[in-house]
Amino acid sequence: MAAEAEAQEPKKKLPIVKILLMTVGAIVLVGVGAGAAILFNKLTKPADENPLAIVIERKGAPAEGDGHGAPAEAAKDEHAAAPAAGGHGGDAHGAAAPAGPTGKPVPSKEQFVTTYFEFPGNFTTNLRGSRRFAQMSVALATQYDKKVIENVQKHEVAIRAEVLALLAEQTETDVIGVENRKKLQVLIREAINKLLNERVKFGGVEDVYITALVLQ
User: Has this prediction a pTM greater than 0.70?
Assistant: First the structure.
């Protein structure tokens, strides 16, 4: 009977050992889970709150630079300044490329506006010593103010009469050729300015142009 009692005692102690092992195992699992949760929270925190993330970002910083650990902004500055030292932005010695051919300087003097006026219709009259007659169109130009053109229009009838009288005194030879036409233009300008000086005390017509001349 004593031997049976001794054999049963270890069997009673065995469940207590299992309970202790299970309890220790549960504590270990809880500790591992808590540690994993703390590590996960640290990894998921922003870079300014997570020291581990800051270390990782600092180690990966060269990927944002120029490949040698330099900051990205410094690399951009070096590449931006490179054309100025050579390549397409300058020559092989670092000199800047020329801006291109320079044109003539713009005149700094005051530019006067030229006003043109063409008489409506033609001036038609017989030529001196000829059965042929001339049909002529006349225009004039001035750099004075618009008052000159207004005076010409105001006295257009008198001016037409003077020009026709002047043209009627010309022969066929007098109106043929470029040089003769230039001389005729000067004569017409002088006749117009003379009439305007008599009527309004100022001429102002600077150029006269024969825009068409037909002999018939």
Answer: no
